Amino acid sequence: MELMEATELRARTRLGEKGRFVIPTVMREALGVDAGGVLDLRVVDGELRISTMQSRIRRVQERARQIIPPGVSLSEELSAERREAAKHE
User: Fold this and answer.
1) Structural domains of the chain, count
2) Which residues, at least 6 apart from 24, have a Cβ–Cβ distance to it below 8 Å?
3) Are 31 and 43 in contact (CB under 8 A)?
4) Which end of the chain is more exposed for a tag (fewer CB within 10 A), N or C?
5) Whole-angstrom Cα distance, residue 28 to residue 37?
6) Which structural domain, as residue segments, surrounds residue 89?
7) 27 with 55, same domain?
């Protein structure tokens, strides 16, 4: 396995038996994942993308901040809607 220098972490590795490969320690540390950690794997545009659930949640939260106005609580709005619907049952 050869770690390549760049502004982002990159590595080249070989696919082993049963489709296994090793994620270098520096990359596991950057992802904040240890042995037994859960990873999300996706193929996008012919590339394998690996992420953690924490990074996926963080990305969704960042997108939500762009859409939801400051001071608005979606959980409070949902609770209010459910209380209103319960009144009409």
Assistant:
1) 2
2) 1, 3, 11, 13
3) no
4) C
5) 10
6) 38-89
7) no
